[in-house]
Write a structure and sequence with these properties.
Blueprint: H1 2-78, H2 85-112, H3 128-137, E1 142-147, H4 155-175, E2 181-187, E3 191-198, H5 214-225, E4 229-235, E5 238-246, H6 249-256
Parallel strand pairs: 1-2
Antiparallel strand pairs: 2-3, 3-5, 4-5
Helix pairs in contact: 1-2, 1-4, 3-4, 4-5
């Protein structure tokens, strides 16, 4: 009798408990699947935002540099002696359109740019010497001084050095046309130092607000990603941009930690 009563009471309780636990496991499984799907979508969205940041940064670095050189060349052509009035007016129009394109580019970057959490890929580009030659050919007065032997620079450091010089020369052409610029790259066994400085502009230049500061912010990010230090500011009536990159693996790891 006791066994029958126990079976009649305990067995339904075990069956009910098993069914309840099974339903809870099924519900937990579906909740986990939904959570994993949300995480997958979030990761995909973050990857998309990082790609937009890379595109925006490269647009600013490459197109901004080229447009500034076009504007500088048009300004030099406008002042060339013996130029016909029609050609002078065309040069003035080219410079105005290039300046407007730089402003528009800054507005587009303001929409696209997000903060990346990884180093963006770099397109192939010219070396520092070729950057200086192209800027000089466009009418910018610029000198290059290189001290020491570069040796085998890490690829990410080499790209960061390229970007620092490119962005600094772009800013000189944009904000201080006619000013003399000096690029210095110094290599030692422990570090590589880059400095781009310019004197005051001969004439006042209207400050354009479109995309202001994005280039320097991007440089700060790039230099920091490779373990370097970055700085900029007014200097002797002009402006200077400075970056230092550690070369030894131990120093780079310590700087990135």
């Amino acid at each position: 009798f006791v066994a029958v009563v126990a079976g009649a009471v305990v067995l339904p309780w075990f069956v009910g408990r098993f069914c309840r636990q099974y339903r809870e496991l099924v519900r937990a499984g579906w909740e986990r699947a939904a959570r994993l799907e949300r995480e997958r979508r979030l990761i995909a969205e973050q990857a998309r935002l990082r790609e937009r940041a890379r595109i925006a940064q490269d647009m600013h670095d490459v197109l901004g540099h080229e447009l500034s050189l076009i504007a500088l060349s048009a300004g030099a052509l406008k002042l060339a002696p013996g130029l016909a009035d029609g050609h002078r007016e065309a040069a003035r129009d080219i410079r105005a359109r290039a300046a407007a394109a730089v402003d528009r580019l800054g507005e587009v970057i303001g929409v696209l740019r997000q903060e990346p959490d990884g180093a963006p890929p770099e397109p192939g580009g010219a070396g520092v010497a070729e950057l200086v030659e192209r800027a000089s050919a466009s009418g910018l007065t610029v000198r290059l001084r290189t001290d020491g032997e570069p040796g085998e620079l890490p690829s990410d450091v080499e790209r960061a050095v390229h970007r620092v010089v490119q962005e600094a020369l772009t800013n000189v052409a944009k904000h201080a046309p006619g000013a003399e610029a000096a690029v210095r790259v110094r290599h030692t066994a422990e570090k590589t130092e880059v400095r781009v400085a310019n004197g005051p502009a001969p004439t006042a230049v209207a400050v354009r607000s479109g995309g202001a500061g994005f280039g320097l912010i991007g440089l700060d990010e790039r230099v920091g990603l490779v373990g370097g230090t970055f700085g900029y500011g007014l200097e002797s009536g002009g402006f200077a941009v400075r970056a230092t990159f550690p070369r030894t693996p131990a120093a780079r790891r310590a700087a990135q930690a």
